[in-house]
Amino acid sequence: KNSRRRVLINKNESSLTEKQWIDILNIYDRKCVYCNSVERITMDHLLPLSKNGDHVKTNVIPACLSCNSRKGN
Questions:
Q1: Mode of pairing for the β-strands spanning 60-64 and 41-45
Q2: Are 49 and 16 in contact (CB under 8 A)?
Q3: Strand partners for 45
Q4: Residues forming a β-bridge with 61
Q5: For residue 59, how far is the Cα from the chain centroid?
Q6: What is the pLDDT of residues 28-37, one digit of tens each?
Q7: What proportion of the chain, given as a percentage, has pLDDT over 70?
Q8: Which of 53, 41, 64, 50 is nearest to 16 (CA)?
Q9: What is the per-residue pLDDT for 7?
Q10: pLDDT exceeds cutoff 70 at 12
Q11: How far apart, in whole angstroms, are the C-alpha atoms of residue 42 and residue 59?
Q12: Whole-number Å distance between alpha carbons of 48 and 26
């Protein structure tokens, strides 16, 4: 699964930096945008990588693992 994800990130535009991700987390108070949880926060791509979404600041929001998994593609 991780290998497939790396391939998708490399195939699409990938300009998200660690600093940008930290900035995004801080904008959302390090909480899930769906349920406000602070546990197990992950990067949620608004337009999924599998649907040719890019790994860029404007396509990523914080989501807990549960909400991110439930959302799917």
A1: antiparallel
A2: no
A3: 60
A4: 44
A5: 7
A6: 999 999 999 9
A7: 81
A8: 53
A9: 55
A10: no
A11: 13
A12: 22
Sign (positive/negative) of CA torsion 34, 12, 57, 1? positive
The one-letter code for the residue type at 44 is D
For tokens 């807990």, the residue is 64
Query: Is the pLDDT score of 6 beyond 70?
Result: no
Q: What does the pLDDT look like over 16-29, one tens digit per residue? A: 899 999 999 999 99
Helix ranges (H only) for the chain are: 2-11, 18-27, 65-71
- Token duo for residue 5: 């994800």
Residues 6+ apart with CB under 8 A from 18: none
